[in-house]
Amino acid sequence: MRFSLLVMAAPDCPAALTALRTAQILINHPEHSLYRLFFYGDGVSLANALAWRGDDDQAGAAQLWQAFVRDHEVDASVCVGAAQRRGVCDDKLASQRQRHGNLAPGFTLAGLGQWADAQRQSEQVIQFG
Hints:
Layout: E1 2-7, H1 14-28, E2 33-39, H2 61-72, E3 76-79, H3 80-85, H4 91-95, E4 107-110, H5 112-121, E5 124-128
Parallel strand pairs: 1-2, 1-5, 2-3, 3-4
Helix pairs in contact: 1-2
């Protein structure tokens, strides 16, 4: 079965880690596939490369999500509108304002059309947050 996940949970919300655990299970399950991750609302902060929890003992949700996306090369789309409202942008968008981007590697900015496509292409959609 093909799944897509809508992640709307902020990094400090338990649902952000629940979504990550769900993605990990799906990516390792032989009968399921993960079509797309779509980060929306406060969930876009999980794609902020500058987000840092500050604890030496435990990585924050943003670092864990970024490692997952990097290690598994999954389709990780970030809503461009929600990202801009929260100060997250890629290098292309940032260069228009003579700044540096802070979108973590492996994530891409996308419109809501990407989410609509995920809904059409997936048998199951799960929302977190």
